[in-house]
Amino acid sequence: MDRPTLYIANKNYSSWSFRPWMALTGAGIDFEEVLIPFDYPAGNPDIKAISPSGNVPVLQHGALKIWESLAIIEYAAELYPDAGLLPGDRAARAIARSVSMEMLSGFRALRAACPMNIRRPKARIVLPNGVDADVNRIEAIWRGLLQQSGGPFLFGAFTGADAMFAPVVNRFDIYDLVSRDDTLAYMKTMKAHAAWRKWEEAARAERWIVAEDEV
Fold first, then answer.
1. Global pTM exceeds 0.90
2. Which H or E element spans position 120?
3. Which parts of the chain are coiled coil (predicted)?
């Protein structure tokens, strides 16, 4: 099987890149990583040269290119069915897809106010309307899934759904948004994952600064 290539952006800031990278790495899938840094304000032409949408992440497998984080995870789950990116139970798979899609398309207030930033020192900010509602909904998703599965991840073992929420774990942490014991326990589990630690180490070593994401 051809080894896929995952094109990503800055590890410190790129939440969209973090999701499929965390999924593939956490599932033990062998892939080549190509990092193309953001180049604000004009954008990096190297990204537009390889991406149909003009954005990353993009997974290239042979001549095929797949863009958007959830589509990449779904493709990898089909390509590597034994990697565990989707739960084994059909009903659980449906719920995993539902919460992943909700993460992909929702929580806009949280995203706008609290950009992912691995290097940011932990500190609170004044939150605009809508952020608390987003936080409460995400906590409710996590709580329900963890109670049903028994943890330590959302569906018991690590899956692509956990990867979809990985940037939120960072946001909850660095902006000091949560205090529930069950939420903090899940965040601790995620941050202890070997894939998370590998991404974090690389992010902290980066020297690029994106002013828009330095809240």
1. yes
2. none
3. none
